[in-house]
Specification:
Blueprint: H1 2-9, H2 13-36, H3 43-67, H4 72-78, H5 85-101, E1 104-105, E2 111-112, H6 114-132, H7 135-160, E3 165-172, H8 177-187, E4 191-202, E5 205-215, H9 223-231, E6 236-241
Helix pairs in contact: 2-3, 2-6, 2-7, 3-5, 3-6, 5-6, 6-7
Length: about 240
């Protein structure tokens, strides 16, 4: 096994093809879960990101081999100085443009696409590791990234739903209904920290709405209880918890 790994670490046609295929497979493994969830960046985006990052590392290695081989005389005459890390170093800044495109500012102060953005950056780093032949890092990092992106989300949501701080979006019928809503919140033992009024268009009508930041009481820290109490008010059309 160690002999095969040593052979794949050498810079040859076989190892180049293997590294590119590995980068494609690693990108597909990460991108499959994101595509299944219909995230902003899908299967092909992750595959191409990982392959492109691997290519930058392979190009750096190719130039290094050529400057120490067929191009050695020309490099010596021209006093060429070569840094193998310069191509891969540009991947971080280059992937920033792609990652920024996956981040979308949604309604009600919510932002989506952050996981896709950092996932692309992590996948690009995996591509660099594939191109460099750092196989131990590739497989261990791939497992950790997939575990974090796929299996940590339910745990994260469960954790956030247990927090005493909660941000909700409420649609109601009249601006004067804010007093009724705030009184209901106080009866539930919660404190209102911030309130931002909005106007929501629905069926050509502009309905009043608000984004409220609350801190639940220690005795009644149930998110569902506060949402249910507000939803039962006759003046409230809809209520939604905003989870970042």
């Amino acid at each position: 096994m160690s002999g095969i790994l040593e052979g794949l670490r050498r810079f040859s046609l076989g190892s180049v093809i293997f590294r590119l295929v590995l980068a494609q497979a690693v990108g597909a493994a990460i991108g499959y879960g994101r595509a299944r969830k219909k995230a902003n960046a899908g299967l092909r985006t992750y595959m191409l990101t990982c392959i492109g990052a691997a290519l930058t590392m392979l190009i750096s290695m190719y130039e290094h081999e050529m400057l120490n081989g067929p191009w050695a005389y020309a490099a010596a005459v021209q006093s060429v100085k070569f840094d193998m890390s310069r191509f891969s170093a540009q991947v971080g800044s280059g992937i920033g443009f792609l990652a920024a495109g996956t981040i979308i500012a949604a309604a009600h102060r919510q932002v989506s696409g952050l996981t896709s953005a950092i996932g692309l950056f992590a996948t690009a780093s995996l591509g660099i590791a594939c191109g460099a032949g750092f196989y131990e890092c590739v497989f261990s990092a791939m497992i950790l990234i997939i575990f974090t992106m796929e299996f940590m989300q339910p745990m994260e949501l469960a954790f956030k739903r247990r927090l005493r701080n909660i941000t909700i979006y409420v649609e109601f019928q009249d601006p004067r209904d804010v007093d009724t809503i705030t009184e209901t919140i106080k009866r539930q033992g919660a404190r209102l920290y911030d309130l931002e009024m909005e106007r929501t268009e629905r069926q050509d009508d502009k309905l009043p709405s608000a984004i409220m930041t609350l801190k639940l009481g220690k005795q009644n820290a149930s998110h569902s209880a506060i949402l249910s109490s507000l939803a039962e008010l006759p003046c409230v059309d809809s209520v939604l918890e905003l989870i970042a």
